[in-house]
Amino acid sequence: MNIFETLESEVRSYCRGWPTTFDKATGALLYDETGKEYLDFFAGAGSLNYGHNNPLLKRAVIDYMLGDGITHSLDMNTAAKRDLLESFEDIVLRPRGLDYKVMFPGPAGANAVEAALKLARKVTGRESIINFTNAFHGMTLGALSVTGNSMKRSGAGIPLVHATPMPYDNYFDGQTPDFLFFERLLADSGSGLNEPAAVIVETVQGEGGINAARAEWLRGLSDLCKRNGILLIVDDVQMGCGRTGPFFSFEIAGIEPDIVCLSKSIGGYGLPLALTLLKPELDVWEPGEHNGTFRGINPAFVAATEALKVYWQDDKLEKSTLAKGEQVDRELTALVESHPDVPMRAKGRGLARGLQFQDAALADQVCKNAFEAGLLMETSGPDGEVVKLMPPLTISDDELEAGLSIVAKSVKGVLA
Amino acid sequence: MNIFETLESEVRSYCRGWPTTFDKATGALLYDETGKEYLDFFAGAGSLNYGHNNPLLKRAVIDYMLGDGITHSLDMNTAAKRDLLESFEDIVLRPRGLDYKVMFPGPAGANAVEAALKLARKVTGRESIINFTNAFHGMTLGALSVTGNSMKRSGAGIPLVHATPMPYDNYFDGQTPDFLFFERLLADSGSGLNEPAAVIVETVQGEGGINAARAEWLRGLSDLCKRNGILLIVDDVQMGCGRTGPFFSFEIAGIEPDIVCLSKSIGGYGLPLALTLLKPELDVWEPGEHNGTFRGINPAFVAATEALKVYWQDDKLEKSTLAKGEQVDRELTALVESHPDVPMRAKGRGLARGLQFQDAALADQVCKNAFEAGLLMETSGPDGEVVKLMPPLTISDDELEAGLSIVAKSVKGVLA
Amino acid sequence: MNIFETLESEVRSYCRGWPTTFDKATGALLYDETGKEYLDFFAGAGSLNYGHNNPLLKRAVIDYMLGDGITHSLDMNTAAKRDLLESFEDIVLRPRGLDYKVMFPGPAGANAVEAALKLARKVTGRESIINFTNAFHGMTLGALSVTGNSMKRSGAGIPLVHATPMPYDNYFDGQTPDFLFFERLLADSGSGLNEPAAVIVETVQGEGGINAARAEWLRGLSDLCKRNGILLIVDDVQMGCGRTGPFFSFEIAGIEPDIVCLSKSIGGYGLPLALTLLKPELDVWEPGEHNGTFRGINPAFVAATEALKVYWQDDKLEKSTLAKGEQVDRELTALVESHPDVPMRAKGRGLARGLQFQDAALADQVCKNAFEAGLLMETSGPDGEVVKLMPPLTISDDELEAGLSIVAKSVKGVLA
Amino acid sequence: MNIFETLESEVRSYCRGWPTTFDKATGALLYDETGKEYLDFFAGAGSLNYGHNNPLLKRAVIDYMLGDGITHSLDMNTAAKRDLLESFEDIVLRPRGLDYKVMFPGPAGANAVEAALKLARKVTGRESIINFTNAFHGMTLGALSVTGNSMKRSGAGIPLVHATPMPYDNYFDGQTPDFLFFERLLADSGSGLNEPAAVIVETVQGEGGINAARAEWLRGLSDLCKRNGILLIVDDVQMGCGRTGPFFSFEIAGIEPDIVCLSKSIGGYGLPLALTLLKPELDVWEPGEHNGTFRGINPAFVAATEALKVYWQDDKLEKSTLAKGEQVDRELTALVESHPDVPMRAKGRGLARGLQFQDAALADQVCKNAFEAGLLMETSGPDGEVVKLMPPLTISDDELEAGLSIVAKSVKGVLA
């Protein structure tokens, strides 16, 4: 038994599916201690959109550190934070015509969600939140209460309340009109639904199985919220920062959520950073009413700023992501079509892609085969029935092709 | 208006008390953009026990990054994580005869607390937690529910339940026996107290006003928990890692909590890291039942490992902290004694020290004066009535003396 | 201002729609202090199925009282209680092949519901309850949490949690298959629905607007519960005791709920009595784990026993109720058909009937007109859009006809 | 096995301690089916202050029924209800200078409590309630959440929240000043105590073990509530209607609670009736926001009115109750003093008296002995360690003496 097995809690999980010890990583490649190379179709669960140890970002971070730039500053004003705020305004918000204030809620996506829920409740004076089937928003108690996975929910040890799940887009395979149930419950004063403070939604559900909501469904949701005085929170922690093509995943729908949660790749380099964006009129916080020790990690600010400057001053990354996404989709679709007798489905948007099996054991085996062949992929979906493909956005065409080739072989291996 | 005022949320707080823009920092010194130097009696709210940009830790981190050591790995096995686990076992646990498993619950102290609460509830099948008056455990919903501050609690927007506050040590200035109320409620099957899963306690309450519990009170609490089948959680996020002298703040009491929360200075360099330590028999987690994107930040592992190796292989830091703490206490006590007509009180343990005023406005003004004179200190306590002195443990004697001199002048300034 | 206006709380309600002072009552007739006679299509909200001051029941009660039969006995054994239990077994349970234990949960329907919810949670170890849109189960906190009406829910002053509303039969006018949403949420381990302890349902929703669930829907619900290990609670407080024809309203579906709530007319004479019936294998209560001061009102036991003996030893009342119900339905249907341009709908089952308007103001005016003409009816439904016809089951044909004639005139009055 | 054992739920309790079947009852006497006579020191748990089948009240009720006075009227205006309201104002409120509005919340004490809690929360906009150790307020979910008994609480099947227990008068045997903990938690904005909407208190805890709060403690509580903007609810369900001497048990303290709960003996004859009294300025209810089917039982109104007229137009009953209470106390005290080696304690006020043992098994055996000897008494207190003496207030001197004689023998029997 190694020290991971003897000393680390049983709660550890990724190390079980990928039983090796990693050491180094660059771009779309990881290396274990034996030097074995792995292609990365996982990207830190969406935290590494710009690849491992991206050299441009690394340079910026190391220069900052070498110059003794302040590392840890809570919410003091720092030069690095100013650079980030200015870049975020100039490169992200203003060109998109978005008017948000920026809150630093703590280091992780769950903090961005916790702050969003608090704020929605404080602003509206209501407690109830509408979430969606197969949502994933985090593991802290507030975020967990709006997360769908029953195993993770049971970890809370208390009844999770104040959230009511509504069917996500296409939950009934088109059998019912969008929002049929939700609209009716809201309109009916006898429905028993507690009046919601907010709706929280992912535009593409990553953990939930790479379920991509249609733009018209997102617009319908936004309209529904406006008509009913409900705040709309988009959790763009995994799908933001270009994962689906545009910087914000909701841009395709032309909507403006009241609150937006960002984390994972916003920090650029895999360093913890999270932002909660809020409409200026919602900024009713008292100073310090929400805080957190690690809400000012300046190396993450530096990497985040550099990532915005390098990748988001033009539309090259967005176009490349869309193109690569199309390529992944084509190959997954071809795989599906070449096995007409096996129920499979290609899913997703941009570079958040999935291959859904009916039998979760097959998906699991595909990932195992891929690992053996040197490719990291995880499953997602309620039963782990979806093979999830999320390479870094900066992956090269050759690497992408090599990875897809392993995917194809891995799938064929389980279907043989 | 600068961009912090126009773009950042009103929730920002430290920047209000320290109205400048910081840029660089080393050891116990920060520098703002104009080059003005500030002595640091704040230490990142306890995250910078080894000082800003500690050169030994910086070297290790930068070397790791330059070598393309993997940065972000969730809970995969990595070489850097193995080093940390081994060092933690060899340097921290084994010499102290402590038997814990280690959980990586996410990047921040609140994650360590959320995981601890979940686990205590899961293990016991009970929901209720006992916390203490003026406790601070974090801002996520689970952690906030066991936090005392009413302004912060009101931010939740929902009623915070499942926690019952008990009086902290000396809450009644010695009028009542320790645990009088708590013991009686537990013993009385008609008391109406829900049977607790766990007690969560800080050995010294930092945010609560530098209230230091006596060793015998901590022992009494530990005994009470054992007798009643209640798990004892020590939140050592702020007071651990040597802040009060020994590595764990509870060592002075000779107790062994069931669960221990670490964060802040465990990462060494101000990079987000948190650990939840749990007795092996409590390790009932399902794989992945608690998770988090930023629970594997390898530069933080590297800095943490280096900090353990540099500072905790012998007792030099511990002794130095105790000595410096005594020095601070002597000077605060002298200040108190030199103003017999002003109700003040010197408080604390190790290098977690406080000067309590009756009038919170005085404490606030002391910190303002100190800032003007180039010293960073914050207030704590329910009304901000305590000036909080928490320099880096690695502060030099001269710096400490210089800081204390500013403290003395700042106090005299408000009392003049 | 009279004393009702000066001394009684603003919460009073029925006295507002029927602004007179009642004095005497017999059968289907009430009399106010001026001697004005009112036909009763309200029947104590379902508590007076056998009419006001039913002479047979009155005789039994008065004889019992004159003989100094014990009046108030909590859950001591009494002769009157034995008679009730024996009659309930012989006349109600055994002939229907039903195997239940009987619990006396307190005097009112809400107590029967509170006990049912407690028991379901205790047995299953789960907290969550599924209720239905437009459900009404009572005003105490447990019962209110599964009640739909938003005005009544807001009276709680705390967030009502642990209940999730599902669409009642025909909630979407046949657009969706039965239980589409419910089944899918249960089957999907990522849905975010807390695993339910129980479903609570009314077979006909009285307060909700006289919505009658189809027998096949009830069977579907029963099957769904069995398949998923969820307890089925039928709240037969208003629709039991023959209101819809058979003694239990669920008999038409051939189902056997796990728990049944009875109150209102079970006491026969309008005296408070409630029963919770439970499958023997669910009887896990500790002695006294649920109690209540008024759970042993012997005059109510006596009236209840007499009512069973008089009305339920044969099927005359059931047949008569069904026949009268058909008559009401015919006349309501004729009313609807004679006004093809006004959206109206005849609803209900047995002698629980409703006339639904699109415009709630019309329904309200119909009841006002009827009151002026000497007929008591209330509205129900989320917005009060349904005129509710619930005469005593023992109403004479002439009285019923006279009442329906007033209904017709009252409707025509508002549509003129 | 009799039908109680085969058909009635295991939750039944009083029948276990008193294993016979009762049939008739008058005044302070009950008779079982064999004709055996029992003296009643139980009085329907406080519901039969005027004795079983009190002939004056019986006459009034039967006359009303024979005249076809309306029985069941919800909250319609009725002549019988007017009589009750007028009598209550004339006989109870006005002479005491009390200004309350009267709400009919449903048939039982728990309904009065549920309505009180709802109203306090609605008025204040806060959720949290302060209750006291060993409180008993009822079994419905709201009332149960402020009840102390752990066995009864566990019956809820969900975590009971929104209530925090404070120590009742003399909980620490005089070791601490009154309200030490409560005042401190309120004054300390960092205490973690949710700001309370209301305090709910019994002046003498019946179920809790006949704990009588001192008048000065009650005054202190009232002052504390006023100073802190907290509503004071006195639950006088068991101790009101003269049980301790005066009509309201809080009269001895000269306080005016914001809300008062009455039930049990308010109906006079053991018929279900409950009232919630509220200061006029608190009457913010919407019509129908709280309701209940059995909130208008006119025979109970008639008996209640008659009881007020017979017993409360002068101070004879009050004086007699106090005198009899003194007699009981003397005899209990003599018992205690005659066994100096057995830890016993005489407790209580008026005719709510208790004899507390250290060993609950002794108290239980005393009641068993008494039953054998023809006297009904129950135990109370968290472990059933208190023998509870609550005869009808109308018990004759001879009966009282006879009962006390049995008590003495029963005690001696267990101590022999």
Automatic annotation (TrEMBL), chains A, B, C, D:
GO MF term (any one): diaminobutyrate-2-oxoglutarate transaminase activity
Cofactor(s), by name: pyridoxal 5'-phosphate
Keyword vocabulary terms for this entry: Aminotransferase, Pyridoxal phosphate, Transferase
Record pathway: Amine and polyamine biosynthesis; ectoine biosynthesis; L-ectoine from L-aspartate 4-semialdehyde: step 1/3
EC number, as in UniProt: 2.6.1.76
InterPro entries the record matches: Aminotrans_3, Aminotrans_3_PPA_site, Dat, Ectoine_EctB, PyrdxlP-dep_Trfase, PyrdxlP-dep_Trfase_major, PyrdxlP-dep_Trfase_small
SUPFAM superfamilies: PLP-dependent transferases (SSF53383)
Transferase as UniProt keyword: yes
One Pfam assignment: Aminotran_3
Family matches, as PANTHER family: DIAMINOBUTYRATE--2-OXOGLUTARATE AMINOTRANSFERASE (PTHR43552), DIAMINOBUTYRATE--2-OXOGLUTARATE TRANSAMINASE (PTHR43552:SF2)
Family: Belongs to the class-III pyridoxal-phosphate-dependent aminotransferase family.
Protein name (Swiss-Prot/TrEMBL): Diaminobutyrate--2-oxoglutarate transaminase
